[in-house]
Amino acid sequence: MSMRTVKYWLALSACVLCVWCTGRADASVSADMPHICPLNGERFMAMVPQSASFVIIRLDFRQVGSAVSPWPMVTCPGNGFPLFEQTFSPEELVKLKAFAETAEYQTLRKDHPVYYLVARLQRLLNRPLDHIAASMVYASWQSEPDEQRARTYLAEALPLFQEFLERSPPADAKKAANLRFLTVELHRRLGRFEQAAALLQQHRDQIATVIPPAYMDLEALLIRQQKSAPAAPGMPDSKVP
Known about the structure:
Elements: H1 8-22, E1 29-36, E2 43-51, E3 54-57, E4 63-65, H2 90-100, H3 103-111, H4 114-124, H5 129-143, H6 147-167, H7 173-189, H8 193-202, H9 204-208, H10 213-225
Antiparallel strand pairs: 1-2, 3-4
Helix pairs in contact: 1-7, 4-5, 5-6, 6-7, 7-8
């Protein structure tokens, strides 16, 4: 998947808003696309999702439906490099090539979901904190149903989102509200119910301008019940696999 399809949290928030407004999404479509590995020039073909249908959106914004969420990340066959952006500067390519030859890179490839590797590469290139945090959330989704592993990645994502909101809160009010709600949800997923309740109360007015009442109500209910499993309105036991 290239940066064309991965705009990280800006795109995710916009997608959620669109879905909540329209109640539908396009049917699933994929295409076999040509790619070139930026590290070694390797040419290859890979299937890339173009659109997807969905059934529900969870409290953490994961879409559940006919397609995998997050969408599959295209990786170079030889070195496993993920195509998370379309282009890199010459200086960035030097950093990426050097890192791809390290033992740490090989460990990341072997022991973690590809989106966690993406997050590490984004750190290397000093990408925005919310982009890095979003990749870690995607890594947590890839790790389900291993809840312990998934929460490990969420625990890394949460402080990055919080730092982003403190240092440079988005000028876009809708994005800011979505991120505020997400920090509440990540606290809940991590079992930090007091913090989740306090944040929801503190930012309720801002969040309510974007988040539908059914999501607000379920979030508050699950916090009171001290339930930390993934959830969405209308699903059995408020849980989506």
